[in-house]
């Protein structure tokens, strides 16, 4: 590619037009006073065409939204706009006993679309402790990301059913099997909170050649359940798989760690730990763990990195989608300036100039004027004509 200093203006405009075609579409949910275009999350989702090529980013203003949410289109981002996930809640009372009695789809929020992203949100099923199965979320879209989210419920709170799912800086609470399903999920820097005696996981891998399972890394297990009354998991199916790596565990976890279910599923399932710790970070005594569970070696634990676990055949890397480069030098020219902001702004799920400033301060070349949206080419042309750096468009 020729340098921007020698790129014809007509080509620059063409590149800008192409970028505009791929630009994210933003919708706002909230009250009129909050600038909302919609007052319902589901109403906003219903405007997304089934064959959308762009990513639709739905900014949800702080508040409590009592509604069932179905995300069917691909490439949808739901983003809470509060200071924390506590400020924006999607909640609904929905149980397995709600007619028609098809428990797999009875969830407050259902995600079927691929490349889904949720950020800074709370997903809640408001059914109580004695309601039976009551999912806060049912996720089956491939390449889904849940960043800084909370999942509230009791039984079967979070169902990762199929596809690859990445949970980062998130919180899930419940009692019985409150993380379950047949998905290929990775939980990192997350907290599991057991509200009553029960089981954290009930993973559903059915065949030995299936790639699904649950991995928990650098996470914390705590709760209000009595000491020794909670198990890391139990085998829902014959080849269930759950692995805890570098995870802190409170005394609510039973010394056996794992529990059987029906038949001999525990003998063909794979339950493992590596470097389990107490809440203070001291090595945990695992000598009484179930003799059919595993304590991993360094080499074995490395095989369960997120890069390996989630890559699949397409090399998916969720970190590249949710975590900005801490250097903020996105065009690789050694400077942190307006050009970096423009590249950063085009990434899926990225916010506006205020978000940039909160992370990196005011970038050079944006002090005197507002940085335009991707469709605006005046500043882009000015930047290109004054720099020999390579220009990248999505």
UniProtKB/TrEMBL annotation:
Organism for this UniProt entry: Bythopirellula polymerisocia
Listed GO MF terms: pectinesterase activity
EC number(s) recorded for this UniProt protein: 3.1.1.11
GO CC terms, sorted: cell outer membrane
Signal peptide from the UniProt entry: 1-23
Gene3D superfamilies with a match to the protein in the record: Single-stranded right-handed beta-helix, Pectin lyase-like
Keyword field contains Ribosomal protein: no
Similarity section: Belongs to the pectinesterase family.
GO process terms (BP): cell wall modification
Alphabetically ordered keywords of this record: Aspartyl esterase, Hydrolase, Signal
Start and end residues of each Pectinesterase catalytic domain: 32-311
One Pfam short name: Pectinesterase
Name the record gives this protein: Pectinesterase A
Gene that this sequence comes from: pemA
